[in-house]
What does this fold into?
Amino acid sequence: MSDRSWFYASNGQQQGPYPEAQLRDLIARGTVRADTLVWSEGMAGWQKAGEIPGLMSGGARPPAMPQAGAPPMTGTGGYGGGGVDGPLSVDLPLMPLLGRFLLLMIGALLIIPSPWTSTSFYQWMASRTTVPGRPNFAFTGQPLDIWYVFIAMGVMSYVGSYDSTLQLISIPVEAFLAWMLLRWVFSHLASNGQPLPIAFNGSVWTFIGWQVLMVISFITIIGWAWVIAAWMRWICRNISGTRREVIFTGSGLEILWRTIVFSVACFFIIPIPWVLRWYNRWFISQFALVERTA
It folds into this structure.
């Protein structure tokens, strides 16, 4: 079986062909799941990967996918990653991304629907994201978990635009709300249906400081891009609960020119879906998992 080439179905489209070693890598990463339809030459028709003997387990590409029950714990208290390191990736179908992004914006503008539209967007994005060593990555938060945070963020966005004095007051308040939102997101991540013991432990005061620095950096016209890069690295350093380290590899210059291209393309309206996907794919790919050095 090891010399065979495989196809698999994703979002109604045929992917492949892939050598079996590469298919097993996709299985280990959670891209191909037990209920994913696959086909190889000699098969009568498409079949679920989990129904093909020897495909989902065994083989020459470790680690094997976790079986029923919680993933094994490491001595450091995090989930065993099987030594699988590398960048995150995301598969974003063009029109579904645009539709969900528009719903996210509409929910934010109307405020009241924002807990539902935002949570749905996070759940969809997580389901499209591939994390090395974390099969079937998911976000399990529910709209009513912290509905008051979403409502407050919507209200503050209007308050900040009403008056310059109120805008200054809204900056630390919005930063505090974003800090609460970030902690909630990290505490509701899962893999293979099992909660991940991940937490964001960054100080709220430091987070507010980053937000203030971001606002000040706009005076320099371009300095905000380097602030974002440093801010992302600080957030990564304050993620706990996994034996692997989360890093951000993007630079300020990369963020700057991509944001400029994105903004200019959005001005012409028609390219929006393509640049939205391009920008999100790149940004997510700048996060990676590596073995901790200490």
Notes: The chain is about 45% helix and 15% strand. The chain has a mean pLDDT of 86. The chain has two domains: 1-68, 90-291. Residues 90-291 form one domain.
